[in-house]
Design a protein that fits this description.
single chain; six-stranded antiparallel sheet; 21 helices; elongated; binds adenosine-5'-diphosphate
Length: about 800
């Protein structure tokens, strides 16, 4: 408990200090703003002003209609209606305390301006001095150097503007050298900061967009927004009072400013169009096209000397306002249909920016000394902020979504793992007893001469092999579903594979009096590389079905070469391939057109009423299709109901030996009957150790070996196996079961290899396994076993294994005996 109290106290301390720091931060910001805007407080020396004086009062204005003179203060604006012509003159006396090294700054707002002191012209800024800018001069500060000699003299300023509705006169400052310029800088500080923020933000966003555009999925609006920011920033800088400091040529400065202000709403429209998922694209496209066209036209008119940019600006403003109206309209439409939810934050920012844009335009026309860009800039900063919030919001949603997905995936993975484990153990559990049934059946078959017993045994064998097929199908399907089915390639003789299939199917076809033919292209390559086990499985499925679902007529397999090609192998070498088409055609019951699509669904059997007496699970075709998919092929079916079916597919196999296989003859090697036959050799000197914890398995295994007459040793556990190896003379072959309690086959093998006196070269070790789940094969070979034998053990496979691994001198062939 005391611990908990302590924790509580710590938490309170950190919360309180966090709050204090936040309060300090906020007050710091408030003071910052105050300091930037405020004048010195009482009792403080004027440190911020650098001694700039203003000559704002006591100006005598002449040039009015009625010829009268007026005293005015600056800044001022005089309506044209009150003027006689387009010129006004203001004058007053300069202060007495002028000093050498001082200057005076007066600003021309697009007007001609000439400054006289004591009747002599000091500075002039006239339309005639510019070639390009007809009657609208770029606004600029005029600097008049003054000295002590000018004290008390009269200053007169002549200002002319032919077109504007009012003549604007800005305040006039004087002071030492740079001080006057510094005061200008201080006045435009806010504008410069806003412009800089926009330019930096815009440029950074454009660069990041270009670098990571592939990863920001559809967030194109970032790019559009970035362009607006950059344009706005450059425009505000271009129109700021300080522009003379940044840009050497007032004319070029003016032209780029016009280009930016005329086009910015078009970029805004692009931005908003993309934010709204292009749902109001038509309206925006019209506005964008108009703006593009009109801005170009304005430039042409300016350079052709027909109308200057200032005069055509009004058209741009109208188009801009129309675009803002389109945006407003689209927002209202989206509020109505609920789509606004997708971009609520940006919409709020946009409404704010639009309002600010309108203020900017209104202020431009109503206030002669309008400061450019402050409104628009603020609106855009708000828009950036809104977009930032929107992006954060979207990211949070995406992140939440991802977490949910990951959780679901984890659950699904756990379920799939559990299923995989269940299948591995089920495969072992079921195969072991079936193994015993098949093996014992085989032994009875070999040993009995009684016809009746032979008939029973034939039934037992047939039933257990059906059971085994079923288990294999279910296992295959689950392996395919979990993506754990591997395609394992090896060399095989194409004709041999077909011949074996032919012999296998021949009995069944004969039973039903069907004509079974194999039509094999003589041009097919002799030896190819592919997964023969799976190709056989596919063909057995198709042939079995054809025989099963055909009552009379024929079943025909055709295999033809349709082309050869070359691919690049794993080591970069070129490998020849053969494209082979195989089809299985029958004259059976056929399949209804409407059933064709459902055939490959798992557990689906079509036409159930008619098929009810035919055995099947509806898995065969599903497995066939999936296997073909794994090999990059697909099953094609043509069928006429009541007439017959034709199942076909194409296979690409690597070519090992391209020699044409010639005329196909399924009886070249007469089929070795696998049942009840005697092996073709004996191994009287071979020493074989069988290790299995299951008594029945050992019995079956030694029964299968019996006719070869080897010397058999038996061990019922891994430990017994090790003891026996230690005690006895070296064995030729050890058959080791994988799944054993305490010490399993792999562990036993590892200990075995470490044993002194165990000669790994002399003794071959083969693992027995019912675990046919994917990856098992590689695992066994990697562990170091010589080979593995699948359960239930098929006599022919066992014999082949013995022939392969036993020292040939210990194999006594029947011919040898006879000879
Ligand atoms: P099953 O174990 O039922 O044979 P399959 O997946 O191999 O399962 O076949 C699915 C269904 O397709 C069968 O039930 C049968 O109705 C139909 N079918 C398959 N091959 C043929 C064929 N050669 N002729 C007619 N119908 C067929």
């Amino acid at each position: 408990m005391p611990n908990k109290a302590k924790e509580g106290f710590g938490e309170i301390i950190s919360k309180v200090s966090g709050a204090i720091l936040n309060i300090l931060l906020c007050s710091g910001i408030v003071l910052f703003l105050y300091a930037a805007l405020a004048q010195p407080m009482k009792g403080e020396p004027e440190v911020g002003n650098f001694a700039v004086e203003y000559l704002n009062d006591g100006w005598e204005l002449s040039g009015l209609k009625d010829g009268e003179k007026q005293i005015i203060s600056l800044p001022a604006s005089i309506e044209r209606d009150a003027l006689k012509g387009s010129t006004v003159i203001i004058s007053r006396t300069l202060p007495e305390n002028l000093d050498d090294g001082m200057n005076l700054l007066a600003r021309s707002i697009m007007q001609d301006m000439v400054i006289y002191i004591d009747g002599a012209e000091r500075v002039s800024y006239r339309t005639n001095d510019f070639v390009e800018m007809s009657e609208h001069l770029p606004s600029a500060f005029l600097e008049v150097p003054i000295s002590s000699k000018d004290s008390g003299k009269t200053i007169s300023i002549v200002i002319t503007h032919k077109k504007r509705s009012a003549v604007a006169i800005e305040k006039i400052a004087y002071g030492y050298g740079g001080n006057t310029w510094y005061s200008v800088f201080r006045d435009s500080f806010a504008t410069i900061v806003i412009a800089t923020i926009l330019i930096i933000f815009g440029t950074a966003s454009i660069i990041s967009y270009v670098l990571i555009r592939n990863r920001i999925r559809g967030r194109n609006y970032v790019f559009y927004l970035a362009r607006i920011l950059l344009i706005a920033g450059l425009w505000i800088l271009g129109e700021s009072e300080l522009r003379q400091m940044f840009f050497g040529s007032p004319v070029v400065n003016t032209i780029f400013s016009y280009i930016f202000i005329e086009t910015i709403t078009a970029f805004g429209a692009m931005f908003f169009n993309s934010t709204q998922n292009y749902e109001h694209s038509k309206l925006y496209s019209v506005m964008i096209a108009l703006i593009a066209f009109q801005s170009t036209l304005n430039l042409i008119l300016q350079f052709a000397g027909i109308a200057d940019l200032y005069e055509t600006l009004i058209v741009s403003h109208i188009l801009s306002i129309a675009t803002l109206a389109v945006t407003a309209y689209s927002i209202i439409a989206d509020i109505r249909n609920g789509h606004i939810r997708r971009y609520r934050e940006i919409a709020i920012g946009m409404v704010f920016a639009i309002s600010m844009g309108l203020f900017e335009v209104i202020s431009f026309y109503t206030k002669p000394n309008h400061v450019f860009g402050v409104f628009l800039g603020l609106g855009l900063v708000a828009l950036v902020f809104a977009s930032f919030i929107q992006t954060l919001h979207d990211e949070v949603l995406v992140a939440q979504e991802n977490v949910k997905l990951a959780e679901a995936e984890e659950i699904a993975q756990a379920a799939s793992d559990a299923k995989g484990k269940f299948l591995a153990s089920m495969s072992h559990e079921i195969r072991t007893p079936v193994n015993a049934i098949v093996g014992l059946g085989e032994m009875i078959d070999r040993e009995t001469e009684e016809e009746k017993t032979k008939a029973y045994v034939a039934d037992i064998k047939s039933a257990s092999s059906t059971l085994l097929d079923l288990i294999n199908d279910i296992l295959d399907l689950s392996k395919l579903e979990s993506g754990k089915m591997d395609i394992i390639e090896s060399e095989y003789r194409f004709a041999d594979m077909l011949a074996e299939l032919y012999r296998m199917m021949k009995f069944r076809a004969d039973d039903k009096m069907l004509d079974l033919t194999f039509e094999v292209d003589s041009e097919l390559p002799t030896v190819v590389i592919g997964d023969t086990k799976r190709i056989r499985q596919i063909l057995i499925n198709l042939l079995t079905n054809a025989v099963k679902y055909t009552e009379k007529g024929y079943v025909k397999l055709s295999a033809s070469l349709i082309g050869t090609d070359q691919i690049t192998g794993e080591e970069g070498n070129t490998v020849n391939t053969a494209r082979i088409r195989i089809s299985v055609k029958d004259t059976g019951m056929g399949i209804k057109h409407e059933d064709i699509g459902r055939l490959t669904d798992k557990y689906v059997r079509v036409d159930e009423r008619r098929n009810r007496n035919i055995e099947g699970t509806g898995l065969g075709l599903a497995i066939t299709c999936e296997l073909l998919n794994l090999m990059g092929s697909e099953l094609k079916l043509e069928s006429v109901y009541g007439k017959g079916s034709d199942f076909g597919f194409e296979l690409v196999q690597k070519v090992k030996d391209a020699t044409p296989l010639g005329k196909f003859d399924p009886d070249v090697k007469p089929g070795r009957k696998t049942s009840g036959r005697k092996p073709s050799f004996t191994i009287p000197e071979a020493r074989i150790l069988i290790c299995d914890d299951n008594d029945m398995n050992i019995k079956v295994f030694s029964g299968l070996l019996k006719n070869m007459h080897p010397i058999i040793y038996k061990a019922a556990s891994g430990k017994a196996c090790l003891d026996m190896v230690e005690k006895e003379d070296p064995f030729d072959l050890i058959f080791l079961d994988h799944m054993m309690p305490e010490m399993d086959g792999i562990m036993t093998f590892e200990r075995l290899c470490k044993m002194e006196g165990f000669d790994r070269d002399k003794t071959k070790v083969i693992i027995l396994t019912a675990n046919v789940i994917s990856g098992a094969r590689q695992q066994y070979m990697q562990t170091g076993f010589d080979d593995y034998l699948e359960k239930p053990v098929i006599p022919a496979a066992l014999e082949a294994m013995i022939e392969k691994y036993l020292d040939p001198s210990k194999i006594v062939r029947k011919e040898d005996e006879e000879g």
